[in-house]
Design goal:
Blueprint (H helix, E strand, L loop, with lengths): L3 E6 L5 E2 L15 E5 L1 H7 L2 H6 L30 E3 L1 H7 L3 E6 L10 H13 L4 E5 L3 H13 L2 E7 L4 H9 L3 E5 L3 H15 L2 E2 L8 H5 L1 H9 L7 E5 L4 H15 L8 E7 L4 H6 L25 H10 L3 E5 L1 H15 L5 H15 L8 E6 L7 H5 L14 H8 L2
Parallel strand pairs: 5-13, 6-7, 6-9, 7-8, 10-11, 10-13, 11-12
Antiparallel strand pairs: 1-2, 1-3, 4-5
Helix pairs in contact: 4-5, 5-6, 9-10, 10-12, 13-14
């Protein structure tokens, strides 16, 4: 039995039974949202039961996920990533509290382990032998890792220009990799076409409605780890839009169940060179496809596939869309590492760049609390990190120590 009871389309608003749709809305082709029986869930999931639960993974929230009670889950430990208080950043930006949630601590090094773990469960429930996804890197790595742990075959479509570390990671997990000589959006379209033709289970964001359900587990953890006191604002890097939309749904789930008393503002942050969703939020709400080229490959999306969900999350929460420069993203990789000790890839540095932009624009309050969602580990794109640093000092082994100290500027 599952507590999910149906779907509702984000575009046309029509509701459907779970058995009537697998991916998109049967009526208009729009993105679907999963509906739940919250009365039933309230009898199963309580704060006291969570407090007694020693399963510190996303599966502690199984009652709020669209899977059967008896379905096996991948064995890797996904979720319950740490939240750190960052006083140095709070002082720097003049706010009451700045926190970071380091999802680079997940098994394959990114937030995408959450939806990919759920995708494997749903593929098994569907009786699929092969699961596929389009990815700019992290979703593919996450899916490959989850499939390896569950003995399932995967086919990943990824731009050939993706960071080498991510390509190596997918390959080492044994995924069948398709390097597409084009953009992420072109890889996405080819993946959808192949899955339709061969009957592969489709994991891709903005297509499979269950992926937002995996991503909302981040919201559950933020609330529970902070003793059910959510931050005033949460800054999230935005590409296709599913992460920020999923998080917003998670907070609404908790609010509906009475676990939290208020909802946070969702702040979507994008690069100035890949900003379709933020541009829509800040204007008429219409997403216009435009070329996307950014060092933050994980959010380099020209045609966001879950834009409606993301725009509603930002607007309904009273949040905002923020654009940052490429230079600010690069600088934030080093700034975050030196302020917190956490090394992230470019997309995960985007929230800090967004916080700096909001501070510079006078949009922060002195007593507010802010959380930055860090979505990926820095080792996934070391080449990008090297653009943010100076080359280290190189010396001969017989150098005079006084000369060494002078050259180190100590």
């Amino acid at each position: 039995m599952t507590n999910a009871v149906g779907f509702k389309c984000f575009e046309c608003g029509r509701e459907h039974q779970l058995s009537d749709a697998q991916y998109l809305c049967p009526s208009c082709g729009g993105t679907l949202d999963v509906l739940y029986d919250y009365d039933r869930i309230s009898k199963i999931l309580t704060k006291s039961r969570l407090a007694a639960d020693l399963n510190f993974t996303i599966w502690r929230y199984r009652a709020l996920l669209p899977i059967d009670e008896s379905s096996p889950v991948p064995p890797l430990t996904v979720g319950w990533t740490p939240i750190y208080d960052c006083k140095a950043l709070a002082d720097r930006f003049g706010v009451g509290r700045v926190m970071i949630k380091d999802d680079g601590r997940n098994p394959t090094g990114s937030f995408k382990d959450r939806p990919s773990a759920l995708a494997v469960v749903k593929a098994v429930e569907a009786g699929a032998a092969i699961i596929t996804t389009a990815s700019s890197g992290n979703a593919g790595s996450a899916l490959a890792g989850m499939c390896a742990s569950s003995r399932m075959r995967s086919v990943i479509f990824i731009p050939a220009a993706a960071p080498p570390a991510k390509i190596a990671q997918m390959t080492i997990y044994g995924a069948h990799l398709v390097l597409v000589e084009g953009s992420y959006d072109e890889a996405y379209d080819l993946c959808i076409e192949a899955a339709r033709s061969y009957g592969w289970y489709q994991r891709s964001t903005g297509y499979n409605p269950f992926m937002a359900e995996g991503k909302k587990t981040g919201a559950f953890e933020i609330a529970e780890q902070l003793n059910w006191n959510v931050p005033d604002r949460i800054l999230v890097p935005v590409g296709d839009g599913c992460i920020i939309g999923g998080l917003w749904k998670g907070f609404n789930d908790l609010h509906r169940l009475g676990f939290i008393e208020r909802l946070p503002q969702m702040i979507g942050v994008q690069s100035e060179t890949a900003s379709a969703i933020v541009d829509a939020v800040n204007t008429d709400g219409v997403v216009r496809t435009a070329p996307a080229h950014t060092i933050a490959d994980s959010i380099s999306v020209a045609k966001p596939r879950d834009a409606t969900r993301a725009i509603r999350a930002i607007r309904d929460s009273g949040g905002a869309g923020v654009k940052v420069s490429e230079a600010a993203i690069t600088e934030s990789i080093a700034s975050l590492a030196r302020s917190t000790g956490v090394f992230v890839e470019p997309a995960a540095a985007v929230p800090l760049a967004g916080l700096a932009r909001m501070s510079g624009d006078g949009r922060l309050e002195s007593d507010e609390s802010v959380l930055l969602l860090l979505t990926g580990n820095g080792l996934k794109d070391v080449d990008a990190a090297r653009t943010a640093i100076k080359e280290p000092l190189k010396v001969r082994p017989d150098i005079e120590l006084e000369d060494l100290k002078r050259r180190l500027s100590l």
